[in-house]
């Protein structure tokens, strides 16, 4: 097949957006591998750099649990122009509904859906300043949670720590939500890797029915739950689908069980026109922040307490989706949440 190159008249701004998204995908797909290869090269094939890198690896051992204690967000990293070009590529919008302001003396848990293939909308809107998140929520420090295993990779860990990304462990969530003076706003993508493995364009299948750990942590710390819906997140990428019971499907669940992530074969757009690739499609994403759900602190919540708040959360999340979808989705009458 003959490759058709992009027309020369495409504006420079649009080309820079494409470069930015290529870099983003490379970091997501190859960041961990690069960290390992660079470490091996530095330790085995250099002289002076070896000692510097040994010092850095020693520091990592000392600093390994920083991802459980709020990390170390760096303002200038959150404000990199790179993030703004990524946001403009789709584009990604951040929408705060007019329900009022957050209490600066309390900690809040942003519960984000859907995961999609890369959770791009939530990531770019919340932990970077591409959409001026801190201006919409000026009284809180912003965090997001990811797998703890991501913090074992040299160099990559420094990038995500500087963005305010921390471990998704119960210990890490308790640390941020339990701060007595409040002022923390932390985001958790509830569906995780399992939800990502079922991503299909125009579908919103959420893995929430049996996920109640975040509700228990919310009750224990008295932290309100804030539903967040990323409309359009599932449209930017699709994936090769495998039948239940197939060899690759079994491999996906085995890898998830032992390593926490699901291997997938993504399908997106290419760098050149009409070519297959793994770049996300230019589809609009709107990240809508709903009204907080009040939570009364209960240090030892019963199963009944957990189930009651969990059901209330599902109800409010469904209401958010159904009332807002007409503003962001085509053919919205035929699109509904599927909560499993």
Q: Would you give an account of this structure?
A:
The protein has 340 residues and is an alpha/beta fold. The protein is 41% helix and 15% strand. It has twelve helices and twelve strands. It has a seven-stranded mixed β-sheet with strand order 1-11-7-2-5-3-4, sandwiched between helices. Strands 8-9-10 form a three-stranded antiparallel β-sheet, with no helix packed on it. Helix 1 crosses helix 4 and helix 8 packs parallel to helix 10. The N and C termini lie far apart (42 Å). The model has no long low-confidence stretch (mean pLDDT 91).
Q: Which range does the strand content fall in?
A: 15-25%
Query: How much helix is in the residues?
Result: 40-55%
| Largest sheet geometry | 7 strands, mixed
Rg, rounded, reads 21 Å
Give the beta-strand count. 12
Give the quaternary arrangement of the chains.
single chain
**What structural class results from the helix and strand content?**
alpha/beta
Point out poorly predicted stretches. none
Give the overall shape: globular
- Taking strands numbered 1, 2, ... along the chain, how are they ordered across the largest sheet? 1-11-7-2-5-3-4
Total number of helices: 12
The averaged pLDDT comes out at: 91
What is the string of helix and strand elements? HHHHEEHHEHEHEHEHEEHEEEHE
Instruction: Calculate the terminal CA-CA distance, rounded to whole Å.
Output: 42 Å
């Amino acid at each position: 097949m003959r490759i058709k190159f992009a027309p020369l008249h495409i504006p420079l701004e649009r080309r820079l957006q494409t470069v930015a998204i290529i870099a983003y995908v490379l970091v997501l797909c190859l960041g961990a591998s690069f960290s390992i290869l660079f470490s091996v090269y530095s330790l085995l094939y250099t002289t002076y750099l070896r000692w510097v890198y040994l010092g850095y690896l020693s520091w990592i051992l000392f600093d390994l649990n920083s991802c459980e204690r709020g990390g170390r967000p760096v303002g200038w990293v959150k404000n990199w122009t790179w993030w703004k070009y990524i946001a403009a590529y789709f584009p990604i919008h951040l929408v705060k509904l007019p329900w009022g302001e957050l209490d600066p003396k309390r900690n809040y848990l942003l519960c984000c859906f859907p995961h999609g293939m890369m959770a791009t909308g939530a990531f770019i809107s919340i932990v970077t300043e591409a959409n001026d998140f801190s201006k919409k929520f000026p009284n809180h420090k912003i965090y997001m949670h990811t797998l703890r295993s991501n913090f074992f990779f040299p160099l990559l860990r420094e990038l995500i720590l500087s963005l305010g990304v921390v471990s998704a462990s119960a210990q890490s969530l308790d640390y941020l939500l339990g701060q007595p003076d409040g002022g923390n706003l932390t985001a958790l993508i509830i569906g995780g890797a399992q939800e990502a493995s079922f991503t299909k364009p125009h579908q919103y299948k959420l893995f929430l029915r049996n996920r109640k750990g975040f509700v228990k942590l919310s009750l224990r710390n008295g932290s309100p739950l804030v539903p967040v819906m990323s409309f359009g997140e599932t449209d930017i990428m699709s994936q090769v689908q495998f039948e239940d019971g197939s060899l690759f499907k079994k491999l996906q669940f085995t890898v998830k069980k032992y390593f926490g992530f699901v291997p997938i074969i993504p399908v997106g757009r290419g760098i050149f026109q009409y070519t297959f690739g793994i770049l996300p499609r230019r589809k609009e994403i709107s990240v809508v922040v709903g009204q907080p759900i009040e939570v009364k602190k209960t240090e030892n919540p019963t199963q009944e307490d957990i189930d009651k708040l969990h059901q209330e959360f599902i109800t409010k999340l469904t209401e958010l989706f159904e009332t807002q979808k007409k503003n962001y989705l085509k053919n919205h009458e035929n699109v509904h949440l599927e909560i499993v």
